[in-house]
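Consider the following assembly input.
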Amino acid sequence: MREHNRAAPPSRRIQRASRRRVNLAALTVLLAALLLLAGCGGDHSILNPAGPAARDIRLIWFVMLGFGTVVFIAVIALWLYTFKKRHVARTPAQERRIGRRWIIGGGIILPTLTVIALLMFGVPTGKRMLTLPLDEPPEVIEVIGHQWWWEVRYPGAEGGEVVTANQLMMPAGEPVDFHVTAADVIHGFWIPRLGGKIDMLPGRINRIRLEADEPGVFGAQCAELCGVGHAHMHLHVEALPRAEFDAWLAARSDEALAELAAQNAAFDAARDSFTQFCAGCHQVAGISASNIGPNLSDVGSREALGAGVMAMEEGAIYQWLRNHQTLKPNNLMPRHDDLDNDTLQDLGAWLETLTP
Amino acid sequence: MQTAFKRLHLGHPAHLIIGLTLWSIWFVAVYGGLSVACAVAPPTPDQGSLTGLNLGLGIFSVATTALLVWLAWAGWKGGRELTGRPRFNALVSAGLYLFSAFGVVFTGMPIIGMPPCL
Amino acid sequence: MTTINRQATPQDPQEPEDGRTLHDDLHEIWGNPRGIKALTIVNHTTLGLRFMITGMAFFLLGGILSMLIRTQLATPDQNFMTPDIYSQVTTMHGTVMMFLFAIPVLEGLAIYMIPKMIGARDLVCPRLTSLGYFCYLFGGIILASSLVIEMAPNAGWFMYTPLSSSEYSPGLGSDFWLLGITFVEISALSAGVEIVVSILRTRTQGMALHKMPLFAWYILAMALMIVVGFPPLILGSILLELERAVGMPFFQVAGGGDPLLWQHLFWLFGHPEVYIIFLPAAGVISTLIPVFAGRPIVGYGWVVFAIIVTGFISFGLWVHHMFTVGIPQLAQAFFSAASMLVAVPTAIQVFVWLATLWLGKPKFKLPMLWVLGFLIIFVCGGLTGVMLALVPFNWQVHDTHFVVAHMHYVLVGGMLFPLMAGFYYWLPLFSGRMPSETIGRWGFWLTFLGFNGTFLIMHWTGLLGMPRRIYTYEAGNGWEIFNLLSSVASFVMSAGIAMVLIDIALHFRFGKPAKHNPWGADTLEWANAMPPSAYNFVSLPNIETRHPLWDNPDLPRTMAEGKHGLAVASHGRREMWGSDSITGKVREIVHLPGNSWWPFLAALALAVVCISLLTRLYPVAAVFVIVAGLFLLRWSWENGAHPKAAPDAEVNEGDPPLHSRTMSGPGVWAMATFSIANGSLFLSYLFGWFYLWTVSPEWRMPEASPLSLLVLVGAGVALTVGASIMEKLVRGLRARRDSGLMRGFYLSALLGAVQVGLVLWSLLSAGLEPTQTSHDAVLLVGLVYALFHGALAMILTAMQGLRVRCGYVGAHAPFEPAVVVQLWRYNLVTFWVLVGALGVLPRVMGG
């Protein structure tokens, strides 16, 4: 090598560089600590599991994070050390031996052992989410993705299939099989606190098994880009004790819902407007049977409107009907500019009574 | 056996790609075979991982591994007697054959314990 | 440009007595024209720089888009962009960075560097370089223009169907993407093909495979991967564009198609692409580390091993982008294991570099700073990559910001940082000047800290459950603070990048003049003048070592003095060595074409085709397809013994013959390499056919195949006879016999015409309804493929007949038929496979 360094002596430069490096390391550690302090909570957090599958995956993550950090620090430290350490003259044979040790040890043995360990440890975890046959067949819930809302079906309900939208009730403390598909483009079904995600593909049915330990409410939102409404496609997921879940289903039998929709003659005008303006797309049991937009038979009992865009409260449906294109831009329901406020208020008030 | 291998001209760079090409063919055959079998005649889920499909894939993998290990061994043996470029070529190729064999074993391991079509 | 630093380098030949140097003579032959004629330049040095500069311009565009994204996500419930604009911006950010920045810039670096490193004077198909550049430029401009008219693609950079289909993306956005990207890929493919052949066939005397610089190994692998990896996406793009434009339901379930086929084709390309980007970057690292450690790399063979393993394994990983689509768990496990397997070659390289530093005397210069940045970021990204290969974990973090963070760690760490290291390292070669250490360091630290601030935090945002590609989010999930931090840091990174680019730009004007070989490197590119002359080297040396400049520091001077091979210019040809692919022994003199308008004009015609397809002016498109074809044929006319190529074949005493006077010159290799790409396209097509047949949910196979087997077999027979006549002619040429050559070519062409006619007949008589079922659409595409190739062979062969008449081809110049016959061989194999797959198998297997 014929290169001579006329600027600062290399050793000082390296010192400066390594000091910076130490600062950087300190900063990183500090930042990481802050992140951890900020907590793993949240309705959508993978690190805040509420079911066995998600819990296993969190464990895998922390093990991998720990091991990865050790490997990372070791490799970087070794590299930095090479700039610092004194050069030792060696014979070519020695150099070859040292080189081979590094390459075989670090390049072959280390990654091989790591990935074997990872596979042994990781593959069984995935089995939990497979829909393997069980002694007692689990509850099956069908979820169908639409642009940009969720259709949820309970084919196993005793009083005939129950259909609802944008809210998913499931029994807690037992495995549930989800059969998912899509009506238009690809969507992603994912309840982060319960376990992994699965794509909803048109023309195919995908299956995943999830379980919630305890009754509770979990966040969920579409995971696969599905168009302009992708960010506004939330799903309210709630686990109920088995008995409550059964009662919830029973209250949504066709007869019960039809009865609910027909009661109170004060809403006759609203029912007429519904038949005139909404029935082409929406279903309300006993009144209409269309399946283009979300089923509204129990809409009053839902937590939110517009797939999680606004909370359900008194007058919310009217607000939604009036301003839905602002609240959820580009959604596929036409504007209601041709309808006056009274009609919409009336409609909203009636729909809010649909609470089985 | 070694002489048979010598006839393949250890110095030829084709050896650098034959091993991994065999791995690729094995990979495509196993993945494709599995997909077609699962689409045409899937075994029932309650058979677990003890199906004829797993067995077939397993035997195929073992055979491929054996072939690759033999190639690696012969390349190593032959390469050590050479010098210069042929030696370089033969030893790197032997390494690649060995890696391909390892690749078949490693990638094929799940055949042992997993149900095929779920 | 070539005069800035002439005194400082030993490249100046000694003045002969008449005052005219060899340099002047060579310069007259190789030099670049100015003004409008600069569009005709085919020189690799100029075009390499153009590629890199254009790529950096697109990098800035992609960077600006990323700043828009981070602004939008900085706080919850932002209204900075509408969801549609946001989708356009994210889609274009990914597309621009991948297709218009990463690949072209690295190709540009390879185009610039490879001939200089292997002791050649240019790439082997200079006109192809030029075509590639203009296809890239025009395609990039067309694609980027969609942003201006707010019609950019918005279905995500992987364009998943059905979202990207005409039903759910009715605008022109997806068309811009599909047509623009396909156009740009012509450029990638042509660069890929010629780089492969250049590395294999034009190394200087004596440079055997195992003495090549490692960078050449990396680039060879990259180029081969481009050749094999890009065609699946080209096929996918063509199919999707056909679906959008005329309604062939390849990806629509109702028509018997399958949206998953798109994902397979896309990721068959998409995963290797990550390594296409990473390998050259790793090549930069493997070049720099020995230089700054002051010793040869430890374990050259190990690195070659790692390169080859990476190249292969990366084609076996594509499904790991599709773990959540519902593929059987066992199949997922294969891909999971294969994905982890790739950790081995990567780890080998990391430890090879470590061992080299360990055993050397490393010096901490500016390029090494970027190398270190690369290491930190890339090791991190590699570790998260192994995590993502684990299926259950992947199911959780797939499609979240964790994946976004991982991907940026791998791509920015694995590509941008090494690229910057390479730029700083080679800047003295580009310009003859040194970069500024101070601004360079500031730029590095801002970029490095900004990058980690943005993306380290983003891992956490992903773990907290934030999906990717949402244009806004509500407060309350714990995502707010992390998004804000990411956004702030991303602006720090932007400042750093700006500083680096300003530093690089300024150095061309204000940098200290560099001394020759400023870093004390070992490879041949530093034997060039700084900046290099158009012909690179006055004479081409005999190289039998991996470290020519360390073993013989005098080499640059003796090369410049013309003391080595091919130091002649009297014939007026652009010449360099054609050497044996394995041993590097000289086999022929390759004579290269000079500057030409045809590549520019052909690219322009193709741009018109692209725009008229976009605007649905199909007659215009058809006309310009023919125009482009004519330009390309006219271009190929200037070959062999044509007056503009090499009319007389005289060479110096003792030198090998000109390549056009042999039967196995680099052109034969280029055709073979191109056939690999073509074969990859064909295999992707077959994959599509069998895939839809076996797994498409609503596939409909008619009771009886609509294709007449008899007609197809007849076509096959005509093709077989035509091909065997070609073989016989070529055998004759090999024995220097050319009696009946012209008649033979015309007869083959005629048989080719018969084949084309029969295929056309079977197509027309089949009564296909390609807009009704994907089955018929797939058949149509297959037959059109056969038609196109049959017609191409026919035209090229008829042209050979014409060239025999003109005296450009014959026993004295037998080269071209050896190229054309390969197309016949290719057609022969693919056509019979096609007959088997489309005509025979459905009859045997039934629906």
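The CA atoms of residues 294 and 766 of chain C lie 69 Å apart. Ask yourself how this observation constrains the way the partners meet.
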